[in-house]
Amino acid sequence: MRLSKFGKKFTGKSGILQLMEDLGAAAKGQEMIMLGGGNPGQISAVEAHFRQRMLNILASGDEFERLIGRYGPPEGGKPLAEALAALLNREYGWAIGPENIALTNGSQTAFFYLFNLFAGEFDDGSFKKIMLPLAPEYIGYLDVGLVDDFFIASKPEFEFFDNHLFKYHVDFDAVTVTADIGAICVSRPTNPTGNVLTDLEIDKLDALARKHDIPLIIDNAYGTPFPNIIFTQVKPIWNDNIILCMSLSKLGLPGLRTGIIIANERVISAISGLNAIVSLAPGNFGAELAYELIQSGEIINLSQQAVKPFYQDKVNRVVAQLQSELAGVDFYVHKPEGAIFVWLWFKDLPITSQTLYERLKQQGVLVVPGEYFFPGLQEEWAHKYECIRVNYALDNDIVRRGISIIADEVKKAYALTPQIKTA
Ligand SMILES: Cc1ncc(COP(=O)(O)O)c(C=O)c1O
């Protein structure tokens, strides 16, 4: 089979492909502790709500038939956009309307669209890139460019805390916006680290983007007002130069592939055009299932009272376990401020994170090696190979077993004998 350049680029070895293949293989029956992928947890209050909503749809006249039997508009259905605009305006005092909202088939698709809208080759022969001002950043961005060499990233600054905790910050001395930058993008909360960029950092990035007349893309897949997997107090921000990307996935609907873009009307119209060409229209099931929650504002209570505490409790357990089982090891956990992962840094680890990943896979635990999370970072950096990302959304017992295996394997790698636990 002869493939085009596009075909080769999108079927070659990529971090995201390896991840999805591992997930697929494990899902086919291998006994694996799946701490690798981005699946959210199963939260009974959320599941109960959507089950009931589905039953209501099925019981209500021809609502189900209308839902499955029609294409929606290419920017996504208006009722959801109106309800969401009203909710955001009410909550945050913004002034957006349905014309500022478009849906996509998952926010992953939104990043494919947005990055290729603002980076790549331009009519005047110039070439622009997406700037990721704080590496590590989301693995899913890595391969979405239609052409190579798509990102430019900067190493972070470190802040250290007691009990093996640390936090990355944007190093604004290293972030220089030149003419070849087409947009700036950050995930907040950040996948893989659980970092939440401070309001000051976001304000500075916003000012920088405006100064250079390029958009600031904020990936809010885990943020407020839903799913609200964010454990610090920060100010939600939007203006007509910010493209805010949201998703229903981490609320508990990843199978329905619903992404939401909030942006100025020119961006929304571009997204609508892309949707029309790529998929005619975005799927409408997620929008319909979430409509009532958004319209009533109940989505805020559900996120605040069910989703956030679910993850907060889990991450507290994981961090405490790591601190106990890795005592004596020179390791750090990124301060968990949001998202559904812990980011572990094993300082001066004698093996690469890829080798650690392979060894853990042999032991039946899937994580993601850290080195994939640095798209656009040109310089070599040992730190890249000393980190792993661990998803903690599964049942507590399973996560506890997985963390123990990780701790033992890490200690072996440092050639430390696992501590013998005494009563
Ligand atoms: C930071 C971040 N952005 C975007 C996505 C894509 O999510 P979806 O396409 O399910 O909306 C993910 C998924 O894991 C993510 O972690």
Describe this structure in words.
- With 423 residues, this protein is α/β, with parallel strands linked by helices.
- Helices cover 39% and strands 16% of the residues.
- The protein contains 12 helices and 16 strands.
- The longest helix has 28 residues, at 298-325.
- The relative contact order is 0.16.
State the end-to-end CA separation: 62 Å
The percent of residues in helical segments reads 25-40%
The bound ligands are: pyridoxal-5'-phosphate
Strand content: 15-25%
Number of helices: 12
User: SS-based structural class?
Assistant: alpha/beta
Rg, please?
21 Å
Which CATH top level class of the largest domain fits? Alpha Beta
Q: Are there runs of 5+ residues with pLDDT below 50, and where?
A: 417-423
What pattern of helices and strands is seen along the backbone?
A: HHEHHHEHEEEEEEHEEEHHHEEHEEEH
Set out the fold topology:
Blueprint lengths: L4 H7 L3 H13 L5 E2 L9 H16 L3 H7 L8 H15 L8 E5 L1 H12 L1 E2 L5 E6 L18 E3 L3 E4 L4 E5 L11 E7 L11 H13 L4 E4 L22 E6 L10 E5 L2 H15 L5 H12 L1 H28 L5 E4 L6 E6 L6 H10 L2 E2 L1 E2 L17 E5 L4 H18 L10
Helix pairs in contact: 5-9, 10-12
The protein binds pyridoxal-5'-phosphate.
Pyridoxal-5'-phosphate binds next to helix 6.
Q: What is shown here, in short?
A:
The protein is α/β, with parallel strands linked by helices and 423 residues long. The protein has helices spanning 5-11, 15-27, 44-59, 63-69, 78-92, 107-118, 199-211, 265-279, 285-296, 298-325, 353-362, 396-413; strands spanning 33-34, 101-105, 120-121, 127-132, 151-153, 157-160, 165-169, 181-187, 216-219, 242-247, 258-262, 331-334, 341-346, 365-366, 368-369, 387-391. The N and C termini lie far apart (62 Å).
